[in-house]
Specification:
This protein is of the alpha/beta class and about 375 residues long. It has 2 domains: about 180 residues, FAD/NAD(P)-binding domain, CATH 3.50.50.60; about 110 residues, FAD/NAD(P)-binding domain (3-Layer(bba) Sandwich), CATH 3.50.50. About 25% of the residues lie in helices and about 20% in strands. It contains 8 helices and 17 strands. Strand 4 and strand 5 form a beta hairpin. It is globular. The protein starts with a strand and ends in a 17-residue tail after the last helix.
Length: about 375
């Protein structure tokens, strides 16, 4: 079967791309491994709320319809509604096993068969595999271990809980666990936080300016963006919803980094040995593109692209990567800008035959 454009991934990035392809009248399909749109959100922890107001938690063409910071389930339902509203052609339960090329066509191998395509948009994002340090396997087997992607609610855990990784997810989960009645320790350096709460009138007033800067100022096209990108890679991002005092008020105890394991127990960088009965790993994610069998990676395994366009494989594009072009490239409000850029790149190629009736205005 040949389909001109194949989008791999039915999350928010794939849907944003599908919206623009639909407007252009292009023939395409979105392949998604999940059984239902929004399942990636439904599998996050129960108390999760976004820290973006509705205006910045919406995809192009359809507002989310809430008046405050959306919950996990509201976001999942919104994405499902979005796909139905624009009648996006999605094939569920269709994981892609391999992507390669034969001649001028891409070959997309799925469990249901092979699809050939003139162009492919990989919209699986950059957060596909959870990271754990190598010493995680040395923990006492009686200690219950979960990754942040597996954590749903406090009753999954037993006894004293150690949350490893003090970024936004780790801090959110540590507070949730402590409120659920577990003595909780949060391990990792403090990454900084915003001085005011998200519901502060000052924060709400400054949010449009901040979001504009994230989209149009802090980009990889200027020194400010490169500086911020290096800072994020080196130190991570500051806390947004909860601040240091919120973590303390919830009864969460802070310690430094976990450096290794001694006799099956985690040891902090100050030499303290902890005795948790449960551990939640919030140590980040990494991209996993091993299923892509194309010469598009550097010697150290990094994807070689220019704002999502892959020069070494014409017709191959990526959307939703962390810092693909801006601070917000992987966030909901940043997808539209990068999707429009990919559309312009496609329209510059001879093989992209979609009519231009709705695409004459594709600003920045």
């Amino acid at each position: 079967m040949h389909i001109p454009t194949v989008v791999i991934g039915g999350g928010q990035a794939g849907l944003a791309m599908g919206y623009h392809l639909r407007r252009l009248g292009e023939q395409f399909v979105i392949l998604d491994a999940a059984a239902r749109i929004g399942d990636a959100w439904r599998q996050r922890w129960d108390s999760l709320r976004l820290f973006s107001l509705p205006r910045y938690a919406s995809l192009p063409g359809l507002p989310i319809g809430t008046t405050t910071y959306p919950s996990r389930d509201q976001m999942a339902d919104y994405l499902e509604t979005y796909a139905e509203h624009f009648q996006l052609p999605i094939r569920h339960r269709t994981p892609v096993l391999r992507l390669t090329r034969e001649g001028a066509s891409f070959v997309v191998e799925t469990e249901d068969g092979i699809i050939t395509a003139d162009r492919v948009v990989v919209a699986t994002g950059g957060h596909m595999k959870q990271r754990r340090p190598c010493f995680a396997a040395d923990l006492d087997p009686t200690i219950r271990q979960l990754d942040s992607a597996e954590y749903r609610r406090p009753d999954q855990l037993i006894g004293d809980v150690l949350v490893i990784g003090a970024g936004t997810a780790g801090s959110d989960i540590a507070i949730d666990v402590a409120r659920g009645g577990h003595p909780t320790v949060l391990a990792g350096p403090h990454l900084g936080d915003i001085p005011l709460g998200l519901d502060s009138p000052v924060v709400r007033a400054l949010m449009p300016i901040t979001m504009f800067a994230f989209l149009h100022v802090f980009t990889l096209g200027n020194p400010l963006g490169h500086l911020l990108h290096r800072r994020v890679l080196r130190r991570g991002t500051p806390l947004i919803r909860y601040r240091r005092r919120d973590i303390a008020a919830a009864g969460v105890r802070r310690v430094g980094w976990i450096t290794d394991v001694v006799d099956g127990l985690p040891r902090v960088d100050d030499g303290t040995v902890l005795r948790p009965q449960s551990v939640v790993w919030c140590t980040g994610f990494r991209a996993d593109h091993r299923w892509i069998d194309l010469p598009i990676f550097s010697a150290d395994g990094l994807l070689m692209h220019r704002r999502g366009v892959v020069p070494s494989a014409p017709g191959l594009y990526f959307l939703g990567l962390s810092f693909q072009h801006t601070v917000s490239s992987a966030a909901l409000h940043g997808l539209d800008l990068d999707a429009r850029h990919l559309l312009r790149a496609m329209r510059r190629t001879e093989v992209f035959k979609a009519p231009a009736r709705d695409s004459d205005a594709l600003p920045g």
